[in-house]
């Protein structure tokens, strides 16, 4: 039987093309191809849209199956709506009008941690699935699980450890935050993690292990670019794809490139991505590093999702030098789908996607010397590059991923119906 599904995310890829928004929107379209009636709900604020008087909702796209929730009054600490009198009635009206059988939540930011509870109260029979894309419920530091001081990885959250990162926030508020989020998440029927690592982090935080399934993200099908068959040469082209921020490891990559330039290693590095909403000091630092490494390193700026396959196909190896526990970077999947080896940090979900010496190389995060060594190994041995390419792990297509989600939804239906 065809399902009616509401897909909800914390933004829309047309406004903010982050990995979570892109995957949520790809899955929305895959659900439609599977015969479901689907509505996409993306939350936004004044960074991307201004409020319109009289309604919390704005249309986006020509088909009428995508809407935005304007969320300009949001408490990022408790991940909650401040203006409940304005937002809750509108969300309730949307749920009553569309009456979904399933609500699939991809993030709580801007939507509000209350959203699953609003769904359950409004539609008791509705099945609620939440995909965990990062560590926001666990970590107030933008969901990074990286300490604010020395920037080291954080292995577990607690009120004391979190207070040490944010000394201006009273310790007891962190305990309240955890209880608040866990209480509201208790209304979710099933959680999905795209990596085993992410699942384990949430199990350690307190979510029931049997409520979290692992379903890897999938990619839309697309034609293979002609560049994908480019000949391996002695002067490799490396590529970086993604926003430029301190946690993506771009400074580590540029420092590694500077070392290799000093050694007169023949190579090229193309850096694709912008640096929106970054501090002046960070922008100054990367501007200096780009200047010192030009023209070997090329700063190519932001790119469109439609162009990513051609851009990835035009390089010999993709580099993902993140210094935080990335969950399931789309750029790794894009590279592997085109037979491109990847050099990635050996932490988080990245370590599940790239096996050192098989389909790429892994390096310690934050280590320019180690990253330079991996790049040198790729550059010095074209035959090694070919072997890595031949072993690329092609990800599932998004329609396969949608079927796995629909199977999961079918599995939780009897339990919810009996309980209602």
TrEMBL record:
Residues 17-219 form the Glycosyltransferase subfamily 4-like N-terminal domain. This is Glycosyltransferase family 4 protein. InterPro entries: Glyco_trans_4-like_N, Glycosyltransferase_grp1. Pfam families: Glyco_trans_1_4, Glyco_transf_4. It comes from Sinorhizobium psoraleae.
């Amino acid at each position: 039987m065809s399902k009616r599904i509401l897909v909800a995310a914390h933004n829309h890829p047309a406004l903010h093309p982050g990995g979570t928004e892109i995957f949520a929107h790809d899955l929305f379209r895959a659900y439609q191809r599977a015969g479901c009636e689907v509505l996409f709900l993306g939350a936004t604020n004044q960074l991307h849209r201004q409020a319109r008087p009289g309604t919390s909702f704005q249309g986006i796209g020509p088909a009428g199956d995508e809407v935005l929730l304007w969320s300009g009054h949001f408490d990022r600490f408790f991940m909650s709506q401040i203006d409940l009198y304005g937002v809750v009635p509108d969300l309730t009206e949307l749920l009553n009008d569309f009456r979904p059988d399933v609500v699939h939540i991809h993030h709580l930011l801007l939507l509000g941690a209350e959203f699953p509870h609003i769904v359950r109260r409004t539609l008791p029979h509705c099945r609620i699935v939440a995909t965990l894309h990062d560590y926001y419920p666990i970590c107030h530091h933008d969901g990074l699980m990286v300490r604010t001081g020395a920037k080291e990885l954080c292995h577990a959250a607690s009120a004391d450890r979190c207070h040490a990162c944010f000394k201006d926030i009273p310790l007891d508020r962190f305990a309240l935050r955890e209880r608040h989020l866990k209480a509201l998440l208790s209304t979710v029927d099933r959680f999905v993690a795209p990596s085993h690592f992410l699942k384990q982090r949430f199990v350690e935080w307190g979510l029931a292990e049997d409520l979290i399934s692992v379903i890897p993200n999938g990619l839309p099908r697309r034609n293979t670019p002609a560049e994908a068959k480019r000949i391996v040469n002695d002067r490799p082209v490396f590529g970086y794809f993604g926003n430029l921020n301190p946690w993506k490891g771009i400074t580590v990559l540029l420092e590694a490139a500077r070392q290799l330039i000093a050694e007169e290693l023949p190579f090229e590095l193309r850096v694709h991505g912008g640096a929106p909403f970054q501090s002046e000091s960070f922008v100054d630092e990367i501007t200096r590093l780009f200047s010192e490494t030009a023209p070997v390193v090329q700063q190519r700026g932001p790119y469109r999702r439609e162009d990513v396959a051609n851009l990835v196909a035009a390089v010999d190896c993709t580099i993902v030098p993140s210094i935080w526990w990335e969950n399931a970077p789309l750029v790794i999947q894009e590279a592997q789908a085109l037979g491109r080896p990847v050099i990635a940090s050996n932490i988080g979900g990245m370590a599940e996607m790239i096996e050192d010496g098989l389909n790429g190389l892994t390096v310690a995060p934050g280590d320019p010397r180690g990253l330079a060594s991996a790049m040198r190994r790729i550059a010095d041995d074209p035959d090694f590059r070919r072997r890595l390419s031949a072993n690329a792990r092609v990800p599932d297509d998004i329609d396969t991923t949608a079927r796995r989600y629909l199977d999961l939804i079918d599995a939780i239906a009897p339990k919810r119906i009996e309980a209602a």
